[in-house]
């Protein structure tokens, strides 16, 4: 059972091992619809908006063997509850790293060079002319990028930042490997020191109970008044109301956001602000990457249903 339309090449992988049912409605299934649709399934290809928990597994039935999330993040899945019932959980690491890092950098450039605002100006047919003080932004060269969570995506963002002449600091649950620190000339800092000293703070950690509202009022207050917050990870890592208030009050410099606390809703305050660049959860949204993600999820399902090891299992 596939909870939402996926590229045909992924369906083809599934068809080799199973009968395939694709829910092709144009919105996420509600929790009730999801439970109704999953009954009798041996494997499920799920999306990041599907809540996968004990009730989901009960609704599917005892034959359920595998749930493959088409996302690297799996905060929508109660992993202990699902794996505890003997069901394999998989995600899609690796294949979306560059696409997400590209988008983080695109949004960062958009906010520092005021690209959204500039485009809105032109499209509104407002007269303009070149002068030296016109629509000035800020440069990235020589500035410090503070990365929260130097995993695959964090490192890919750091590589891009290095090409733009930025310095890298990072924080997280653990130190990165020495080769990674050396390649990126990345300096490990305790979180509070990183927040105080970075010009740009980019979030690349998973959403867990310990990272929920990691960026709250106190964190925002610790930042420089010119700091820019980039979030391409998960919305609830940032207290969105607190962020909107900090931006409105000029307590930080700007924000670049691809994810929101209550998607698809966006805090209305954020939509009023010119120092915010926003996108509707597009981190992995390239044809190449979405195809690779769906195919990887399908291959995980096919592996488990044919008695092989999953390619990219999630463990707790
Ligand atoms: C997308 O948000 C993902 O986690 O892959
Ligand atoms: C700007 O367009 C320049 O030529 O410097």
Features:
hydroxypyruvate reductase [NAD(P)H] activity; seven-stranded parallel sheet; NAD binding; Rossmann fold; 2 domains; three-stranded parallel sheet; D-glycerate dehydrogenase; binds glyoxylic acid; glyoxylate reductase (NADPH) activity; NAD(P)-bd_dom_sf; alpha/beta; globular; 316 residues
Short recap of the structure:
37% of the residues lie in helices and 12% in strands. It has 316 residues and is α/β, with parallel strands linked by helices.
* Small ligands present: glyoxylic acid
The number of helices is: 13
Strand order of the largest sheet: 6-5-4-7-8-9-10
Strand content: 5-15%
Helix content: 25-40%
CATH superfamily of the largest domain: NAD(P)-binding Rossmann-like Domain
The residue-averaged pLDDT reads 98
Number of strands: 10
Number of domains: 2
CATH architecture of the largest domain: 3-Layer(aba) Sandwich
CATH class of the largest domain, named Alpha Beta
What is the end-to-end distance? Answer: 24 Å
Task: Categorize the overall geometry.
Answer: globular
Helix/strand class: alpha/beta
Describe the biggest sheet? 7 strands, parallel
The CATH topology of the largest domain is given as Rossmann fold
How do the strands and helices of this protein lay out in sequence?
Blueprint: H1 8-15, H2 31-38, E1 43-46, H3 54-60, E2 66-69, H4 79-83, E3 88-90, H5 97-112, H6 115-123, E4 144-148, H7 152-163, E5 167-171, H8 178-184, E6 186-188, H9 191-197, E7 200-203, H10 217-222, E8 228-231, H11 240-248, E9 254-257, H12 268-271, E10 276-278, H13 287-305
Parallel strand pairs: 1-2, 2-3, 4-5, 4-7, 5-6, 7-8, 8-9, 9-10
Helix pairs in contact: 1-13, 2-3, 5-7
This protein binds glyoxylic acid (2 copies).
InterPro entries: D-isomer_2-hydroxyacid_DH, D-isomer_2_OHA_DH_cat_dom, D-isomer_DH_CS, D-isomer_DH_NAD-bd, NAD(P)-bd_dom_sf
Pfam families: 2-Hacid_dh, 2-Hacid_dh_C
Family: Belongs to the D-isomer specific 2-hydroxyacid dehydrogenase family.
């Amino acid at each position: 059972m596939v909870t939402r339309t996926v590229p045909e090449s992924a369906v083809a992988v599934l068809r080799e091992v199973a009968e395939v049912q694709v829910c092709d409605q144009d919105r996420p299934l509600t929790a009730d619809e999801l439970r109704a649709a999953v009954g009798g399934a041996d494997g499920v290809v799920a999306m990041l908006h599907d809540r996968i928990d004990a009730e989901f597994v009960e609704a599917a039935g005892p034959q359920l063997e595998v749930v493959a999330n088409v996302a690297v993040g799996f905060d929508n899945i109660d992993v202990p509850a699902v794996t505890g019932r003997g069901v394999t959980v998989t995600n899609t690491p690796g294949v979306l790293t560059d696409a997400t890092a590209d988008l983080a950098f695109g949004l960062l450039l958009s906010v520092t060079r005021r690209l959204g605002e500039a485009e809105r100006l032109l499209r509104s047919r407002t007269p303009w002319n070149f002068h030296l003080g016109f629509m000035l932004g800020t440069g990235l060269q020589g500035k410090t990028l503070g990365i929260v969570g130097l995993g695959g995506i964090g490192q890919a963002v750091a590589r891009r930042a290095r090409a733009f002449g930025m310095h890298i600091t990072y924080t997280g649950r653990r130190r990165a490997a020495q080769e990674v620190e050396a390649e990126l000339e990345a300096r490990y800092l305790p979180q509070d020191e990183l927040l105080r000293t970075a010009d740009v703070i980019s979030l690349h950690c998973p959403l867990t109970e310990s990272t929920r509202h990691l960026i709250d009022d106190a964190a925002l207050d610790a930042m420089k008044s010119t700091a820019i917050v980039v979030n391409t990870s998960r919305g609830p890592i940032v207290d969105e109301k607190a962020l909107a208030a900090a931006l409105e009050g000029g307590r930080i410099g700007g924000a670049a956001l691809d994810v929101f606390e209550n998607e698809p809703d966006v805090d209305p305050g954020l939509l009023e602000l010119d120092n915010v660049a926003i996108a509707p959860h597009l981190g992995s949204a390239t044809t190449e990457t979405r195809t690779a993600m769906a195919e990887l999820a399908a291959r995980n399902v096919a592996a488990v249903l044919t008695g092989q090891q999953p390619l990219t299992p999630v463990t707790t």
